[in-house]
Amino acid sequence: MVSYIGSILVLAIGFILASKGRAEVNIKWFGTSNIIIADETNAIAFDPFFTRPNLLQLLSKSHIPSRQAFVDEVLAKGKVKQIEAIFVSHSHYDHVLDLATLGSRFGSQLIVDANARSYALSLGYDKVNIIQQKAFEQHQFGQFKVTVLPSQHAPHLSCKVFLNGKSESPFPQKPNVLDFRALESYAYLIEHPHITVFFSPSSLGDLGEMFPDAFPSVDIVIVSIASRMSTDHLLNSLVLPLQPKFIVPVHHDNMFRSLNRGLSFSNLVDVDEFLQSSEDSLANARLVFPEYFSALSF
Ligand SMILES: [Zn+2]
Question: Does residue 8 belong to any structural domain of this protein?
Fold first, then answer.
């Protein structure tokens, strides 16, 4: 375990240094599948989740509010100055909790499913700035072109996905964890003149369905490794057929702990097994484990 984690850190640090000085597109990770991709003029965010309720708040079904002050603190730490659009892959609390808070800060357009839409509306978000997300639609922000792709949520346990379906309408004013439900799941192709990124936040999907004509040429795959069916299944179904140069695993961190306390791995995600199982099958792809707040630059 120790040697594997040691090699991860070397990879991440070595990669960032190697790229310094020719930064065109930055990818910043804020834990789970909460990422912000930016070039010099535009930024787009995915799955905003900065306020991390602790386990007790979740288990006691307490109200889990998004915390504006904390979100601002984290954005300052990550040097985030603007966000044109926010996409939500699915509406579980750990992908959507800070949607309206982040969006209000920058006047962002929200591109989300019906559940996330009613959550944002319940917090007073202007409906004019909310777009209902649909598979295969494309959205352009500056030089970023984002294609929404049909995906599925990997089961949490055996065949079951917890908290599925339509949220209560109107969305509860003081929601607890059970009020956040996954209605639809999406993946994304993010094309920019400098790089092409495939992002799969929900760990399950069919590339043939996403790309019926031909697979795109992808530089980076960002993939959630939480709730994966198996490492082999995940790599063979969603990652390796795209022949990426870099693979960035996410959603392996302990999401019940504040971002300010630093990165620690989740007890529920077997990172060691992921590394051991993927070691021989990555071909020419490099595995890059991100760190909180710091940018991977391409
Ligand atoms: Zn989920």
Answer: no
Quote the domain boundaries for residue 201. Answer: 25-288
Helices (H) and strands (E) counted in the chain, each on its own, are 9, 15
Total count of domains within the chain: 1
State both tokens at 121.
């509306």
Query: Hey, what are 203's tokens?
Result: 């760990």
CATH of the domain at 271: 3.60.15.10
Residue 76, domain member (yes or no) = yes
pLDDT in tens, 47-96: 999 999 999 999 999 999 999 999 999 999 999 999 999 999 999 999 99
User: Measured in angstroms, how far is the CA atom of residue 96 from the centroid of ligand 1?
Assistant: 10
Q: What is the pLDDT of residues 259-291, one digit of tens each?
A: 999 999 998 889 998 998 888 888 789 999 999
Q: Report pLDDT digits (tens) over 192-239.
A: 999 999 999 988 899 999 999 999 999 999 999 987 888 999 999 999
The two three-digit tokens of residue 67, written as one number = 């915390």
69 in a structural domain = yes
90 C-alpha to ligand 1 centroid (Å): 7
CA 223–ligand 1 middle distance (angstroms): 13
